[in-house]
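User: Could you walk me through two proteins back to back? I'd like the raw sequence and the structure tokens for each, with a short line separating them so I can tell where one ends and the next begins.

Assistant: Of course. Protein one, sequence then structure:
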Amino acid sequence: MTPAVLFLFAPAGGQADGKVMGAFVVQMVLIIGIVYFLLIRPKVQQEKKHRDRLSELKTKDEVLTVGGILGEVIHIKDDRITIKSGESRLVIQRDRISEIRSSGSGEGAQAS
């Protein structure tokens, strides 16, 4: 559309400008609210829940790393975790764990 055509859709007169601007502000607030509650808030809650599960990590838990390695936790020290995968042992950072598959106490699988 050319700028000349856009003037045809503009509201006429100066009396309705306040009402139009008020309606526009209300619409923008509603759109921002919907985006927050549908996209941003669930993601923040999911990340908080994941951080809480990582802080409760213990030995004998089965974990999946970001790189796709599945292993059992054998040692935890600060932010470093040693896992056993097959016949090898790997030292990874705690935040590189994408999900905790199962607990060593036999509780079953935990959803991520």
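----
Protein two, same layout:
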Amino acid sequence: MFDKAKQMYRLQKKAREIKGQLKNTHIEAEDEGVTVVIDGEQNVVKVTLPELTNEKKEDLEKKLEKCFNKAVKKSQQIGADLMKSVMGPDFNLPGM
């Protein structure tokens, strides 16, 4: 039982470290000149738009949606990969 508690403490400590890493990780997604940058915590850092000419508002909105979704998916994958490295194959909690 004490081993499981130590294991949980180590996991919590590593999770805090990963959260710090994610905050400093920038993920970029681009679609037809629209670029979105988010951090690993899925906060928007920067949005870059192409020079607007006669582009329809709806087209630009769809591009932005697509970029945000791409960036969030990338961010989720990075977080999942980092957590896998923490948990490892030997980590086994009852009920999980």
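DSSP finds two helices and three strands in the chain.

Let me know if you want the two compared in more detail.
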